[in-house]
Amino acid sequence: MLKNQENPDHCAALARRKGVIFGLSAYVVWGFFPVYFKLVKAVPPLEMVSHRVLWSFSFLLVLITWNGAWPALLDLLKRPKYVAALAASTLMISSNWLVFIYSVSIGELLQASLGYFINPLASVLLGFFFLGERLARVQWLSLFLAMAGVGYQTIQYGGLPWISLVLGITFALYGLIRKALPVEPLVGLTIETLLLAPLALGYLFRLHHSGAGSFLFFSTRLDLLVAMSGVITAIPLLLFAAAAKRLRLATVGFLQYITPSLQLLLAVAVYGEHFTRTHLVSFLLIWCGLALYSVHAYRTTRVPAA
Question: What is the 3-state composition of the chain as percent helix, strand, coil, each rounded to the nearest 5?
């Protein structure tokens, strides 16, 4: 048993398995995000993003204290290169949050789901060009099918789907930056929210002072839901960062299809958005590609027998 534990291949396979579990958990949670943001749609998008930042920061400080991670956090703050990289990832994730909340508030959940269908393609290509990740023939085929599905839906959309493009590209870049940084997920996410906290606090203070804010002005139920945004935001991001550290960016990208698929189902079955023949064709092509990639990934990440 000890020999198997010390086997590098065995340990790597176990790490990949854990990465898949973390990734699946994060993407399922994100898939149901529209339910939460529909409940808080009375809060304008920019105000909601500001609350997400501050409540996430507060929750993460509790986790930092609980895990005794203050020395690691303070040490990282002394490294300008890493802080600058986290500032770039902060810009990506905050832009993603803002556009996603906006898309839910105006009833464009289908376009948001298209954005998260685009994201895995961007992740695969970023991994190929910047991290030297190589794809087998079956993986290229799966990528082609997914690209065909997204391309078909984009063309049929009849114009530039800016919401989709912003969501897909910003989150792919966020994943690339976080994978490349040798930073623990909890510490990195805490610094990301720390960098945004002064701006968020200033904006919310201005809103509250002018009487234009939503928090503490509507109902106790809404206030509690807004306060929950910290936990709801931080947990899947921590799971995602943990998955990104253990998996190839291409694998992380293809797991991402879980989120838009769930959002697509919610948009049609729960919120009554119109599901067209274009959506059906695109959906089938993408899931055929995902099935091919998933089978190949499973065969290449099986844990060696003990």
Answer: 80, 0, 20
Q: Write the single-letter amino acid at 215.
A: F
CA 226 centroid distance within chain: 19
User: End-to-end CA distance of the chain, in Å?
Assistant: 7
Among 85, 59, 61, smallest CA distance to 73 is for: 61
Q: Is the pLDDT of residue 70 over 80?
A: yes
Residue 128, both tokens:
């190929």
| Entry pTM | 0.79
Helix (H) or strand (E) holding 100: helix 80-105
Determine the Cα–Cα distance for residues 79 and 181; give it in Å rounded to an integer.
12
Q: Who contacts 213 (Cβ-Cβ below 8 Å, separation ≥6)? A: 47, 204, 207
Tell me, what amino acid is at 83?
A: V
CA distances from 178 to 137, 167, 246, 249, 274 (A): 27, 17, 12, 11, 36
For residue 306, tell me if it sits in a domain.
no
Res. 209 pLDDT band, cuts 50 70 90: confident
Task: Indicate whether 38 belongs to any domain.
Answer: yes
Q: Is residue 103 part of a domain?
A: yes
Question: Can you give the residue range of the structural domain that contains 129?
Answer: 2-300
Structural domain contains residue 294:
yes
Q: How many domains does the chain have?
A: 1
* Cα–chain center distance at 92: 11
Other Cβ atoms less than 10 A from the Cβ of 77: the count is 15
Q: Are 34 and 215 in contact (CB under 8 A)?
A: no
166, 98 in Cβ contact below 8 A?
A: no
* Chain position carrying tokens 């556009």: 99
